[in-house]
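Continuing the batch. This is chain 6 of the set; chains 1 through 5 are on the previous pages. Same settings as before, nothing changed between runs. Recording input and output for traceability.
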Amino acid sequence: MGVITLNNVSKRYGTQAVVDNFDLEMAEGEFIVLVGPSGCGKSTTLRMIAGLEEVSEGRIFIAGKDVTDLAPGERNIAMVFQNYALYPHKSVYENLAFGLRMRKIPDAEIRDKVKWAAQMLNIENLLERKPRQLSGGQMQRVSLGRALVRSPEAFLLDEPLSNLDAKLRVRMREEIAQLHKRVGTNMVYVTHDQVEAMTLGDRIVILNHGKVQQVGKPLEVYDHPANLFVAGFIGAPEMNQIPGTLEHRNGEIRFIATGLDIPVPAHKAGKALSGASVVLGVRPEHVGIAESPDETATVSATVGMVEQMGASTLTVLNPEGDTSGARLRMLTNRQDGIDEGDRLRVRLDLAQIHLFDQESGNNLAG
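Output for chain 6:
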């Protein structure tokens, strides 16, 4: 099994950098997810690994071999695309076997490989069907099986679930995770869906405008976002972001904004000076209804909207005294007694807040 390494890889069209100095080393058998908004460079990165796009700068290694200038067929990787790209006139069996036949693999070995992949993906009963007789999920399994029979060094998956409905997407996500555990081969998975990224990846790579914003385990990225972009992109509902200033007062550091004057832990502020323009970030689940008037990090607010989500309640709050139109989202266990227009006093969990430099967007805690 192979390790994929990208050393300062860039892709430029003229003077525009679509991917800029991408640096990453995968561990053997690791599942890496590239995530970011449309146009951030994630699919281009995947295509460079596959050899479908030329590298402008940098080197790519697969299993210790420099493949930067090799053709796709010489890289021993398998790619699964958003569209299934199955041959409509061939049976499922022939779709799975086609690539092996092109490589002059003996028929007996082809039968063994197809049978193994079909069992792995639970499609043994589909081998005689044509693609038009398959559901979307079944076609996606066949597409995965066609990659699986090749025994590649790595699987590259480019938004493979985006054509499926929401319920089937969840089920296929689980199947891909289980497939990775059983096969143990490196996988690089591209998605714009941060939930897919969080649930599938051993590590996730967040990209924006062609630049890597952060690399880390899903919960590391969620709990310690490197900058405002990551803080806003990872997490649903997204993190609350409140602009304000820091003030050093009577031996403590306070965050000041319209309707807010709260103490913040010194390590959250890093080396920021008094008067620094910052953004306070707090996730909706770290906002709760204040239980005591003596709590320090509290905000008075009016309920603007209530979304009942079954087991939980998302409440959108308008902080009192704020004229900027700022909103504060609170995610709690189910709350049946909250209605639009109610006045609440809510608390922020100071252990879970983040402070970001307003100009650079970087997390002040480092």
